[in-house]
Specification:
6 helices; alpha/beta; two-stranded parallel sheet; 225 residues; binds NADP nicotinamide-adenine-dinucleotide phosphate; eight-stranded mixed β-sheet; 18% strand; single chain; Rossmann fold
């Protein structure tokens, strides 16, 4: 059944491949990006029902208004929190601004979108939320990445588990580690293409009613938090 999916950071990297895949599956796609012209250029060669929408994750009040504006014209059935930043540095070397910006973009913005969008999903009796996190946000894997990234991705995983307790079963939320991908973030040495990272995400975005809820997945298999 055709659904409407909002994908943040949809203009490049993994987000653009998720857009491509969800459109190919026949869903209506809302390509969220902070620079609409870049989103339009990215979407130009993709077949399917794609609408470019303004989603800037860097300011909560503006973001909440952008989400409400989108909801005036669209029923969002699927939210994929994909957009994120990776800033370098350990707890001793990281710039304070990078840590604060990462909290905003990688965590607070996801909270904002969920808080604005999930109530309408609950009202309609259907919702799928996918939080794209990372193995660098896994306690079981040692939280070994840059402090700003690891801590915010671990916190987004925590949000996934926490909010699953508060949602009805027909609105599902799950986290995913997409793998190490050749994108601007992942770099050219990564073993996987951006398209290789979409399978688990589109699976979680289109779960049937008896699908998992409140989990962390990689390669369509549960991953330890
Ligand atoms: N690549 C990997 O190896 C890897 C591994 C594990 C997890 N992940 C996760 O996968 C997701 C996608 O990563 P990627 O590799 O595709 O990263 P990427 O190539 O750096 O792309 C990041 C996307 O996020 C958007 N974004 C960043 N800040 C934003 C803001 N303030 N407002 C709106 N959009 C913003 C970017 O938009 P602009 O073009 O406007 O900057 C871009 O579309 C992220 O959640 C990442 O943490 C990636």
């Amino acid at each position: 059944m055709t659904k409407t999916a909002l994908i943040t950071g949809g203009n490049r990297g993994l987000g653009l491949e998720i857009v491509r895949e969800m459109a190919a599956l026949g869903h209506k796609v809302l390509l969220g990006c902070r620079h609409v012209t870049q989103g339009e250029q990215a979407a130009a060669d993709i077949e399917g029902d794609i609408t470019v929408v303004h989603i800037d994750l860097s300011n909560s009040d503006a973001l909440r208004a952008q989400a409400r504006h989108i909801m005036e014209n669209h029923n969002i059935d699927i939210l994929i929190n994909n957009g994120a930043i990776l800033r370098d540095g350990s707890v001793l070397s990281a710039k304070k601004e990078d840590f604060y910006d990462s909290i905003q973009v990688n965590l607070v913005a996801c909270f904002d979108l969920i808080q604005i969008i999930a109530p309408a999903m609950i009202d309609r009796g259907f919702g799928r939320i996918v939080n794209v996190t990372s193995d660098w946000g896994s306690f079981a894997d040692g939280l070994g990445g840059p402090v700003s990234y690891s801590v915010t991705k671990a916190a987004l995983n925590a949000l996934t588990m926490n909010m699953a307790h508060s949602l009805p079963e027909n609105v599902k939320v799950n986290s995913v580690h997409p793998g190490w991908l050749r994108t601007d973030m992942g770099g050219s040495a990564a073993p996987l293409s951006a398209a290789d990272g979409t399978e688990t995400i589109t699976w979680l975005a289109t779960l049937p009613e008896d699908g998992p809820n409140g989990g962390f997945f990689h390669d369509k298999k549960p991953k330890q938090w």
